[in-house]
Automatic annotation (TrEMBL), chain B:
It comes from the Bacteria. It comes from Micromonospora costi. It is a multi-pass membrane protein. It holds the Pfam family BPD_transp_2. The chain crosses the membrane at residues 22-44, 56-89, 101-122, 129-148, 168-193, 221-243, 279-297. This is ABC transporter permease. The lineage of its organism: Bacteria, Bacillati, Actinomycetota, Actinomycetes, Micromonosporales. One of its GO terms (cellular component) is plasma membrane. Keywords: Cell membrane, Membrane, Transmembrane, Transmembrane helix. The keyword NAD does not apply. InterPro entries: ABC_transp_permease (IPR001851). Its main location: membrane.
Amino acid sequence: MRRRVALTAMITATAALALAGCGQESTDDPAPGQAGGKPTVCLVMKSLANEYFQQMQDGAVKHVQERNDLTLESTGTQNETDVDGQVALVESCITKLARAIVIAPADSKALVQVVAKAVKADIKVVNIDVKLDDGALQQAGVDVPFVGPDNRDGARQSGKVLADLLGRGGKVVILEGNPGADNATQRKNGFNDAVAEGGLTLLDSKTAHWETDEANQVFASMLTAHPDIQGVLASNDSMALGAIKVIQERRANVKVASFDNIPAVKEHVQSGVMVATLDQYGSKQAADGIDYAMKMIAGETVTGWQKTEIKLITKDNIGS
Amino acid sequence: MTAVTAPRVAGGRWASQVLGEAGIGVALAALVAFFLAFAPYFGTSQNVRDIMTQITINTILAVGMTFVILVGGIDLSVGSVIALCAVVAGTAMTDSGLPTALAVPFAILISVLIGAATGFVNGFVTERWVVPSFIVTLGMLYVARGAAQQYTGAATIYNLPPGLTRFGTATFAGLPAVFVVAMLLVAVAWFVLSRTVFGRLIYATGNNEEAVRLSGHRTSLIKVACFVIGGACVGIAAIIYMARLGVASPILGQGYELNAIAAVVIGGASLAGGRGSVIGTLLGACLLGVLSNGLNLMGVSDFQRTMVTGAVIIVAVVLDAYRRRLSVRLS
């Protein structure tokens, strides 16, 4: 009997300790969604285990400190695939009566239903990163503004540098992102635009799921099958790094055009193997989304696609 | 929620199960009290309904998993099979051209059949070649995921019948309709496990397979049946997923098998088989759901939430070990 009590005490104490150890943000809101007279904005992120999204979140937190006219509740899921978990996070934001939600959706269709629920609860919603599906939004009867970069135009610009360098008839391959992901499709379309405009010959186009090690394997077999490849159009820098490893190992004369401008590619842009990459200022995107959300709270109507800044990075402007 | 029900088979085990479920019930109550005090909006009726909706899928999967674990098996393929069921059933609804009233029952049938069929393969291979179900279902995890991707070409299916998605947000007597489905399933599973001969054979097989075989029962049939039941539950969960989210994607469900196993284990089941109950499983799923929801509302980051969830699972199995020693002394 004593042991039973001890066990119960143990589980209770553990749960309480574990919880008490967690950082707790402001819970003493004087009015719902209006902490200290400032409106509460929920930032719902995804893939926080990925440095890119972590930086986006950090950028937003810093930006909100500078603005100092809203309370930010920042949450997110660890994986891009945790759709269910992200829906639960949005539901929590609705429950907390946030004035606005800024969301980087884990899935462009699956989040539409809960976003519509938020809109109908009179919460302003701003979509960042990946655009929510137009058809699904229409079906749900809501209109949500999208704040984000033009991935297709960015990929076209990056691919054009490679096309200009190789000239007409240059032989290239594309490394695609996750099949079905909107930004992967947009970037692939942009590369295809550059291939068509520059008169390049496309030998192969395959996915490496955004990942370095997979790109390394995929590109190695591409180069074995087509030893005459002259250029790679990589849909992100992580995959470009995998391809560059193969190029260096085999001392092949292959140039790479890429996307993202992560710090790790700087040396390759300087050395000339990567002729272009594209900065879409990812760390600013959530902050931009919050700015639009605040405009909407102030009564402004924001609709459609609000394009954010992108910048082509080459050897000339990357610095040393 | 803290009702304690267990099959009255042997005195010692009965006592240990009461102890186990009371333990998890107390832990759940403590957690609820904590969040009521510290998590804003936790106790609102809207949030309670949110929690119910959020635990529905895991509860259904965990009920199926309880059957598998009771006979000493494990099913790691759940997260992939739910994706396969969803994309095939989803396509059946969007492409068959049937009216909603026919398309939805047709999709439910397909989904449950696919789930049951994968369960059958899992169970059959495990029993026929006497290999660990851990490995067989791990293989099925890959097969089903690949099949789901192959079937859809990695595309997400949407435009599901509005009737289905309305069901996903509908309420029934103030409760989310999908949660009511899960509760019905819990009730049926409880009845089967505690009030039927088949249920007793399941416990007996998990406890002492040899004795059940010697008394003239085909234990492999019982075990395969448990895998089939587990699979059928996955098929039901796939329909609930589509009703709730309005989409079916071949990448959905990653990690669901582990959530389901966690709910079963927190609910007091033994991975060695023979011990556990569907009420415990329900409480386990509630505990995980309340934990995740409450931490969300408190603004705790996902990383910390993951750590706390892991810690709770570890505490649960440590308690389980204590309880087992106690039950040995009691019997």
